[in-house]
Each structure stands twice: as C-alpha cells, then as structure tokens.
From TrEMBL:
Transmembrane is among the record's keywords: yes
Top-level lineage group: Eukaryota
Protein name per Swiss-Prot or TrEMBL: Sugar phosphate transporter domain-containing protein
Residue stretches making up the Sugar phosphate transporter domain: 10-302
Length: 310
C-alpha cells in the first residue's frame, strides 16, 4: 500500500463514521420516514457539484491513460454510460438497501453485522475478477466473520428482519465494490467520472420511484422538515455522502475491493463507540464485547498482511 493509498483509506474511515451517525440521526432520532428521498438528495448534490467542478475545469472525468484521454474529452459520452451501467445498477441497490439497513438496527449491532461484508466481497472478487487471496488473508477474514457471529448471537432472534436487511446490504456492497474493481480500470474514467455516471443513470430512476411511491409527498409533509436541527443533519449527510462516494471509488481503485471492505471494518471502532454514546440501543454484554474484539483483531491482521505484502 502506497502512502497515498494509506491516506485515502484513513480519509474514508473518518468520513464513513460521520456519515453513519448523521444518517442514523435523520432516520431514527428525527424519525424521517423516507430513506429513498434522502438518497436522492445526496445524489442530486453529488451530481450538481461534479457538474460545476467539471464545467469550470477544476476536475477531470478521465484518468491520464491514453484510453482515458481518448474516451472523455469533456463530459462522459453515451457509449461509456452504457458500458458503465452495470456498475450504476449495483450502486443503486447498494445505496437504497444500505440506507434502509441503518434504520432497523442499533448502531453497534449494525456495524457488527456489516463486518461480514468482507466474506461476500471475497466471494464476489473471485467470481467477477478471479481474485485469489493468501492464507493469512483468508484467516483474518474468518476471524472477522466469527467475531460478527459471536457478537450478534445474543440479539439475532429479536432483530431478524433488521438483520436480514443488513446482510442483504452486505451482499449489494460486495457486488458494488467488485464491480468498481472490474470496470473502474477498463473504462478510462477516474473516481469523479464513475460518480458522474452513477448520478446520471441512478438519479432519474430513484426520482421516478419516489414520485410513484408517494415518498416525495410524505417527505414534504414531514412534521420536522422545518426544524433547524433536522435540516443541518440532512445537509451534512448529503455533503458527507459525496465525500464518501469519492473516497470509496479512490480507495477501491488505488488499493482493492477487499481493502475497501477492510477499511470499513477498521472504522467500526469509532462507529461503535460513538453509536453507543449517542444512540445506545444495545445493553452491555461480554459475549458482544468478545465478538467486537475478534472483529478488530481480524481487521488488524488483514491490515498487517496487506502492508507487508503477504
């Protein structure tokens, strides 16, 4: 891992912790009932910022390879949008299911179950790009999954529906990250270009969905819509979502899909700590603590193996 890759990974972890806190506050503390509307708001802000930055040449949508320079002269042409559509569809499911998974489970258990994403990612990397991993990496993943199962064992029967959505979110995340690793290096697009394509393809689909489902009307009639605290939380959530998407793309393309997943595990220490302090929802239990510690040990072992090139 290069110094730049390490900085990107650390940036992702900090932003991810903050975003989970603000999303949880909007959806649970303020009881905002329209997760898809929040997703659309995040996507609109992201696409608008990208448009302005690209319009005034502050950023590029292509990398510095000959393929990238030839593919994208200003904005992304339709043929590349069509090529990138599988990634955008994976992103759509990742965003929608991920947002829904935050609502039904308390923050500590949400982060615990999310650690099993690494198992799904390893499988999807092998299926989509033929990626194989060394024995130390496989052992570290096994420790993480074991820790997640132990930590969630006390509470599983009471949160079956919420936990099922989180596990579905893990699967969609794994597919999304593996698709980034596969398409991100063949289209000539950089992280900004991939984010732009996702916004153009997924945005209209989600807007049509919230119009037909009545979520937009429900959001406009939300009782706390004029509350300053809710507005601040929502605005910060949208801004952090843009930053998070960028660091996800950058971390996955600079490092790997599995590294991105492991960063998600390592940042869980902060997420669990702040989630316990701000939201609560999970009584102290030694079995849960043991599972959490195993997850962090497995993540640390993976990070060590990755840095040493094992």
């Amino acid at each position: 891992m290069t110094q730049r890759g390490a900085i990107v990974a650390l940036s992702y972890m900090v932003i991810a912790v903050l975003l989970v806190m603000f999303n949880k506050a909007a959806l649970s503390s303020y009881k905002f009932p329209c997760a898809n509307v929040l997703t659309v708001m995040q996507m609109i802000l992201s696409t608008s910022v990208l448009f302005v930055l690209r319009k005034f040449d502050f950023i590029k949508f292509s990398d510095d390879s000959p393929n990238g320079k030839a593919a994208v002269k200003h904005f992304v042409p339709f043929r590349i949008l069509r090529q990138i559509s599988p990634l955008s569809i994976a992103y759509l499911f990742y965003m929608v299911v991920g947002m829904a998974s935050i609502r039904g489970v308390n923050v500590p258990m949400f982060t615990t179950l999310r650690r099993t994403t690494v198992f799904f990612t390893m499988i999807m990397e092998f299926v989509l790009v033929g990626q194989r991993h060394s024995n130390p990496i496989i052992v570290s993943v096994a420790i993480i999954v074991l820790g997640a199962l132990i930590a969630g064992s006390r509470d599983l029967s009471f949160k079956l529906e919420g936990y099922s959505v989180v596990l579905l979110s893990n699967l969609t995340t794994a597919i999304y990250l593996a698709t980034i690793a596969r398409l991100g290096k063949t289209t000539g697009l950089n992280s900004f270009g991939l984010m732009w394509c996702n916004g153009l393809i997924c945005g209209p689909i989600l807007i049509l969905w919230i119009l037909l489902s009545g979520e937009l009307k429900m959001a406009l009639n939300f009782e706390s819509i004029h509350v300053l605290g809710f507005q601040v939380v929502t605005a910060l959530s949208c801004m952090l979502a843009f930053c998070l998407n960028y660091t996800i793309f950058l971390n996955t393309t600079l490092n790997s899909a599995l590294t991105q997943t492991m960063c998600g595990n390592l940042k869980d220490l902060g997420t669990v700590l702040f989630g316990w302090i701000w939201f609560g929802g999970l009584p102290f239990d030694w079995l849960n603590v043991l599972g959490q510690l195993l997850g962090f040990v497995g993540s640390g072992l993976y990070a060590y193996c990755k840095l040493k090139g094992k």
